[in-house]
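Blackboard transcription, Thursday session:
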Amino acid sequence: MFIPRVLSIAGSAAQASAGIQADLKTFQEQDVYGMSAITAIVANNSKTAQGMFTHSVEAIEAQIYAAWEHVGIDALKTGMLFTEEIIVQVASQIEAAEVEHVVVDPVMIGKMGSKLLQDDAIETMKQKLIPLATLVTPNLQEAAHLLNEPEASSPDEMREAARKLYGLGPSYILLKGGGLKGHPAIDILYDGSEFIELESRRIPTIHTSGAGCTYSAAIAAQLAKGNSVTESVREAKAFVTSAIEHALSFERGIGSTYHAAYRKFKK
Ligand code: PXL
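(Written on the board underneath:)
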């Protein structure tokens, strides 16, 4: 038996709403074979002096080769990459492996405020990684950092930002408008010629940790199954919207998106 194989190259989020944990839960829900190459461990807490631990470039390189050699990769996503050196390593292996579907989630700042990409690594992400991407999935804040411009504050400004981001060299841009005040959750998909607007109602919850990770992981899974980029994004948006709608609260600040929600509650 064969199922599509998907690798996440991202950080471990110990509290398990986001990062590698969100990706693997999403891959399982999407019925693809999920694999992971862990770039760093994020485990912020009030008890230990340190809450972030970066893996060596060698450890990351080995994990990507292990997934590639022993299983094979139909699609991959990148999440938290943190440093310039990690981005350079990951980009060179993506190129060498000739992976067909590459989703780059340009993770920069976590929902709880953790810094997940160093400032001096943004330029390297633009030059080395984004041109290899099938699809890049910035939120409004990440788009503003990538373009060195203020955040888009309307659907028109989002289209303009998507057009500029497309100039960085990926095949598609998905600019996510979850943070757009006074509007529904509108995302703009752009392929260099046509804008597709995907809209869902805004769900009144603070428990959205992992939403971006889950969205990009679901897109990678859908692409691995052979769906088009547009179909993959539509299906993934339905998946993540359900995960937000049925989000989990552990009564300690921002709770988690619920990765099983689409399966359990879809009508
Ligand atoms: O949600 C972004 C994110 C991505 N990756 C890791 C994280 C977070 C948020 O906390 O910890 C590892």
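Lecturer's comment: The chain has a mean pLDDT of 96.
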